[in-house]
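Bug: token stream looks shifted between consecutive jobs. Job 1:
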Amino acid sequence: MASWVKIIFERDIYAIDLDRVSAFASAPNGKITFWLPNSSIPIVLSPQTHSESHQIIQSYIEQRTGYSLGAHWLKMNYDRCEYLIDLNSISTFCCEPNSKKITFWLPDSTTPIVLHPQAHAEAYKQVMDYIEKTIGDSMP
């Protein structure tokens, strides 16, 4: 079931199916960033300047995280932001053999996420488990 919302951003009105958004980032200053599906356009909502739209997205994220996210959703802190990422929407994972770092790129953006096994242990394990379950093989 689609979760269509109407938000105002930079004087334009957008109708967005939030169920098609594959990643959200929440910064410590309260800003929420997500990327429009099928594009690389970021929407950055501040609670001060986009209060109504910000609240709509914040409520969706809280609703989404209030329920079980399932094995394919990754919730993690990275680069001073909290991310909620649908791993089913990731099309490429890259593993460095020596350091064991895993890199993937957020869908609909060019933002790389680089996970180190020690620095991001919980997220790293969840991604490795997802890869093994999805492709039937482990990364080195």
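Job 2, same session, no restart:
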Amino acid sequence: MAEEKYGIIEETSEKEEDHMISETLKQNLNDQMNYEFYSANAYLATAAYCSAEGLDGFANFFLVQAEEERYHAMKFYHFLNDMGERVMVEGSTAPNNSFSSVLDCFEKSLLQEKEVTKRIYHLADIALDEREHATMTFLNWFINEQVEEEALFDNLIQKLNRIDQDSNAFIMMDQELAKRSFTPED
């Protein structure tokens, strides 16, 4: 349907008039929300491994990561609600509970973050293709967050590769990570 706005005639679709997002985008946003909940559980499982190994600082690091992922999931929840869309919470598969070392925990976590990045980029591509500006603005926060997350894990993996697990440096790293806390960002 043609609509005149500011002297310019534009074609608008039903979607634009209602400002509803497409079914494809809605499903992918819901899927990502559920994947963020899955990621929170994956970090909880990683924290449990670290706790069992007596590494409370590393466990704290992963507990904070789990809290961040739950926060991210809730951002998707609130965005979908704000857009007038139905949130669909689904069950998830059990996360990995097998780790061979702290380094293994961080390497698997980096792979997890890279998967999140890939999924966020896919969402951004859909939103861009559909000219869904509100969703693009929303996703920009996650794009920036993923750059930070991957850099954080890369940095910690580099440090872990340089130190012996029985060294004072490893103990100091564990103590340093014990100080980390969750602070929601907007």
